[in-house]
Amino acid sequence: MPDLGPAPVTDVHSHVFPRFTRAEGRALAGAGEPWLRVGPGGTGMMMSGDEEYRPVEEGLWDPARRLADMDAAGVGVQAVSSTPLMFGYAAEPARAADWCDLVNERILAFCADAPGRLLPLCQVPLQDPALACEVATRAQAAGHRGVHIGNHVGDRNLDDPGITGFLAHCADIGLPVLVHPWDMLGADRMRGHMLPWLSGMPAETQLSILGLMLSGAFERLPASLRLCFCHGGGSFAFLLGRADNAWRNRDIVRADSPRPPSQYTDRFYVDSAVFDPRALRLLIDVMGTGRVMLGTDYPFPLGETEPGATIRACPGLDDAERARLLGGNAREFFAPVPAGLVVSEGGTR
């Protein structure tokens, strides 16, 4: 690969909510009905049918505002993915596929304002993995640089055979996958204080990662799959020792996994959205400097308001390692697979 010079600061985890009207949101009747109500002064409200879901600001739907925010923060590139409310996983598959095509078209239009700086990620009807493969292939051909999925569909986790089949397809066509937690478990016990986001999201992501490890899914998936988990992998890094200990001491834990969980950390990436340099240091110790990428969760208020601040404050990193976390790893993660290159379990050829 030619020397491309220093990689720009790249945020792999940012969201968009195009300006869908109430009528357009009805395409997902009974499955969320997402639309955007825009108010005065750059304010807005994400809507779910008639219900107010979350107040938002114009960076979520206005590319000019987003680019201005990126410039002010020193961010060169953003990967742009849908807001999980838009997934539509509860809808009938054909209707969901049509909706995803519309969402993907709007994301492409949003990113067209700055094609070198805004990387579009598509979404797919993951409730029907075969249809999801078709939508992903179509979106990649249209210009999408990756696919953004939720970490489960109902009671089907990422190690579900249909979903692992979709992940294998993404590896085959060279399409990176960003996994975001959503529809959090135990919501009936997490009332108020944004507890589903503070407790449920980390648990969901840990569940997804351990499920892929302990089910043997990573043994079956192509090594070429580029997979990234948001929010630093949730609670995974802190509890990895517990999982390894269980694998060593209980046969029911290791029944489907020939290797302990810690030996699969080279099969995926995580973003850096942990907000504490000490937590990031642990995450890097677990994952290695080549598997962590800047992620901010822009433009939501639970995101990193000063992009890259946690990476820059993390102890024990040299300049080259910080540069990898701030952009170098992301450039490799989103690098297009050259035309005609076959991606297989043994790598590329």
Number of separate helices: 11
Helix fraction by DSSP (H/I, runs of at least 4): 25-40%
Q: What is the H-and-E element order?
A: EHEEEHEHEHEEEHEHHEHEHEHHEE
Write down the Rg.
19 Å
Q: Within the CATH hierarchy, at the fold level, what is the topology?
A: TIM Barrel
Explain the layout of strands and helices.
Elements: E1 10-16, H1 22-25, E2 34-38, E3 43-48, E4 51-57, H2 63-73, E5 77-82, H3 93-111, E6 118-122, H4 129-142, E7 146-150, E8 152-153, E9 156-157, H5 161-173, E10 177-180, H6 195-214, H7 217-220, E11 227-229, H8 236-249, E12 269-271, H9 277-287, E13 292-293, H10 309-313, H11 319-333, E14 343-344, E15 347-348
Parallel strand pairs: 1-5, 5-6, 6-7, 7-10, 10-11, 11-12, 12-13
Antiparallel strand pairs: 2-3, 3-4, 8-9, 14-15
Summarize the structure.
With 349 residues, this protein is α/β, with parallel strands linked by helices.
Question: What does it look like?
Answer:
The chain is of the alpha/beta class and 349 residues long. It has a single domain (10-17, 60-336), classed as Alpha-Beta Barrel (TIM Barrel), CATH 3.20.20.140. It has helices at 22-25, 63-73, 93-111, 129-142, 161-173, 195-214, 217-220, 236-249, 277-287, 309-313, 319-333, and strands at 10-16, 34-38, 43-48, 51-57, 77-82, 118-122, 146-150, 152-153, 156-157, 177-180, 227-229, 269-271, 292-293, 343-344, 347-348. Helix 4 (129-142) runs parallel beside helix 5. It is globular and about 55 Å long. The protein starts with 9 loop residues before the first strand and ends with a strand. Residues 339-349 have low confidence and may be disordered.
